[in-house]
Each structure stands twice: as structure tokens, then as C-alpha cells.
TrEMBL record:
SUPFAM superfamilies: Putative DNA-binding domain. It comes from Spinactinospora alkalitolerans. This is Excisionase family DNA binding protein. The lineage of its organism: Bacteria, Bacillati, Actinomycetota, Actinomycetes, Streptosporangiales. InterPro entries: DNA-bd_dom_put_sf (IPR009061), HTH_17 (IPR041657), SinI_DNA-bd (IPR010093). Residues 5-50 form the Helix-turn-helix domain. One of its GO terms (molecular function) is DNA binding.
Amino acid sequence: MSDLVLTVDEAAARLRVSRWTLYNLIRSGRLRTVKIGRRRLVPVASLSECLDALAEVA
């Protein structure tokens, strides 16, 4: 079964960006996340949404 959510480190690795860049995407509202307890998790589907939105701007 594939993962539904990724940690911030896993999401950054999949996008091949730094944690700092990933947090900037989160802060700007370009990358949707969920918070469970104290953990911030990135739904796998939101990675595709973010990339699609960034591709439209480029």
C-alpha cells in the first residue's frame, strides 16, 4: 500500500528540495498539509497539486 501522508523530510526528499524550501511552500499556502497532534504531515495528493500550480506559473 502506498503512503497517504509524508513527513516534512520525506516530502522534501520527494520534491528534491530543502526543508526550508518546503516550509516556505507551506507558509505561502502553496502546499497543503495536515496537522495531527504536533506533527505536520503532507498528503501525497497535495504534492501533485502543488507541482501543477507551480507549473502553471512557470
